[in-house]
Automatic annotation (TrEMBL):
It comes from the Bacteria. Keywords: NAD, Oxidoreductase. InterPro entries: 6-PGluconate_DH-like_C_sf, NAD(P)-bd_dom_sf, UDP-Glc/GDP-Man, UDP-Glc/GDP-Man_DH_C, UDP-Glc/GDP-Man_DH_C_sf, UDP-Glc/GDP-Man_DH_dimer, UDP-Glc/GDP-Man_DH_N, UDP_ManNAc/GlcNAc_DH. Belongs to the UDP-glucose/GDP-mannose dehydrogenase family. This is Nucleotide sugar dehydrogenase. Residues 333-425 form the UDP-glucose/GDP-mannose dehydrogenase C-terminal domain.
Amino acid sequence: MTSTVAEFEAVAQRNKLTSVAVIGMGYVGLPTALGLHAGGVEVIGIDLSQNRLDAIRACEVDLIESDLRRLEKAVHQEDFQLTADPARLAEADAVLVCVPTGLDEYLMPDLGPLKNACAALIASARAGQTLILTSTSYVGTAQQLLVKPLSAKGFKVGRDIFVASSPERIDPGNVTHTQADTPRVLGGVTPACTAMAQRVINVLTPAVHCVSSPETAEMTKLYENTFRAVNIALANEFAEISDGFSIDPIEVIEAAASKPYGFMAFHPGPGVGGHCIPCDPHYLLWQLRATQSNAPLVTQAMHAIAERPKQVVDRVLNVLSRDGRGMADTRILVVGVTYKPGVQDVRSSSALDIIDLLAAKGAKVGYHDPLVPNVRVTGGSLDNVADPHGVDWDLALIHTVQPGHGYAWLAQCPVVIDATYRFDTALFTS
């Protein structure tokens, strides 16, 4: 007799969830672990970096305020454990894989951390566990890195052990759309896998959108961030077009957004960064190349995004040229180097590319960002200009405005270029 969804859900209810291991305690894994712990589950947080674990124990990590308060309590409790030992995975009822999935220098997927995490998971897997991939990756990741090796070890997936994909939807620094308030997509290998995984994800959020397979869940995440990438590229292009007509692109966007249907506002900027938009679409393009398929719109959008820092530097050069100056020996201060406001994260930040491009053209470049004491750039590192004076610089390029910090000193800078298009001029005098 065929089992019903209700029967699978009943099985999941009978299998009480008491402990969850989280592999990877970074920008996704740590908030996930804190959310599980707040939901009453014992957590084993696993990360191979002892420095990262020490920083977490010291509460010296970049989190939204509510998660930081959670962490300050959790690190003193016995049911929130941190370790670098992957053998502890066997102790958990469920395991979430939250390791980074980045790109190499050739924009090819760097699957090393994900493969290593899954290999460690397979080595420690035991009957009855629920294994959930939350890292964004290519379509078929769960099948290739979990289902096949588990089956080779003699596990019957959907009966002995349960596998699902539920890509993360954590936006670092965002206090409006928290993890608990954001629906999660979930696809299990079998209906039993979906039911067993849902009991885990429901600890993080009550809103779970179940789909038919892990592959559907994996494709959904790629579509979400590719959608954003394409529209950001379009917004940047319209900003350039508007500038050619001496039109304010933000005024255009706000006017278009007054339409109550058929339009979603995306804003131009100096580039994209972080762990999603610059990376995720390349996982799709990489997989399509392997099948000799193509996605010309996505390909062009990602090329445009990659070129955006160069366009910003060209804009700087054009402004200097109108003043009869060149780039050589011009003192330029980049204002803000994180990839978005309110976080300390500089991963894939376009500010780093912009700094390199400006320096390559002979500019004397510094940066000011109250959240970042130093950054690695081509040729070495730069230290934050903690107390900038506008008169010390020929030009200030606004890349990221950090909330809660004053920018009145910009009023003394001879030339200010706003690459965000949304800098509040009232901040000049605040």
